[in-house]
UniProtKB/TrEMBL annotation:
It comes from Fusarium oxysporum f. sp. narcissi. Residues 122-159, 179-200 are annotated as: Disordered. Residues 142-153 have a biased composition (Acidic residues). This is Uncharacterized protein. It comes from the Eukaryota. Residues 179-188 have a biased composition (Basic and acidic residues).
Length: 200
């Protein structure tokens, strides 16, 4: 290499230039050369003209960033819509659980939206059921006996359904306690989980 003392006007080792900095990593800064437009003379008027050029450039950059932001928002919406639909198991790269494949869940859920799947098992709100029962009971006078018998049968069915759901919920909560990592009663080890996932 050459020494800085060798720098002369006749034979310069470096020249004056404008640099821009950017951070590459924590505590590290890199520089890159900012090229000046040779067509602009270095006079006061030219500096004012370059200010106008910079203003138009910043407007163009603002428009570009606005368009990029709109594209990103649209892409995230598209991803959300795509994520709502259950994809085919064969097309996904996710880890497959053999017993889910053998039971046929993927084929039944393929192409359905999340809302369609949730509506298949979601219970109606209890307030909606009560309002319907109250509104239907005060109907016409001619068919009170028939309506009463049908409502009584529906109430019995609702009671049975609620008992079944309570039992299922209790069973699932017990199973969750045995499988959850956060539960003090956890019985599911990694080895047992592997055995269950290989169950056919």
């Amino acid at each position: 290499g050459r020494k800085a003392s060798e720098h002369t006007n006749a034979m310069p080792l470096w020249r004056a230039c404008k640099l821009q900095t950017y951070f590459t990593a924590k505590g590290l800064i890199d520089y890159f050369l900012v090229e000046e437009d040779p067509s602009l003379p270095l006079t006061g008027g030219a500096l004012a003209g370059s200010g106008l050029a910079m203003a138009s450039t910043s407007q163009e950059e603002g428009k570009l960033f606005k368009d990029l932001k709109a594209d990103i928002i649209q892409a995230s919406r598209d991803l959300d819509k795509e994520a709502e639909i259950v994809q085919d198991v064969e097309a996904s790269r996710a880890d497959r659980v053999p017993w889910l494949v053998h039971t046929g869940f993927p084929t039944h859920l393929q192409g359905l939206r999340d809302t369609e799947i949730m509506s298949s098992y979601a219970l109606p709100r209890s307030g909606d059921d009560d309002d319907d029962d109250d509104g239907g009971g005060g109907g016409g006078d001619g068919g009170d006996d028939d309506d009463g018998e049908e409502e009584g049968g529906a109430v019995d069915t609702d009671i049975d359904l609620r008992r079944i759901l309570a039992a299922v919920e209790s069973t699932l909560r017990d199973a969750y306690k045995l499988c959850s990592d956060k539960s003090p009663d956890r019985k599911m080890t990694q080895q047992r989980a592997k055995r269950l996932s290989n169950f056919r």
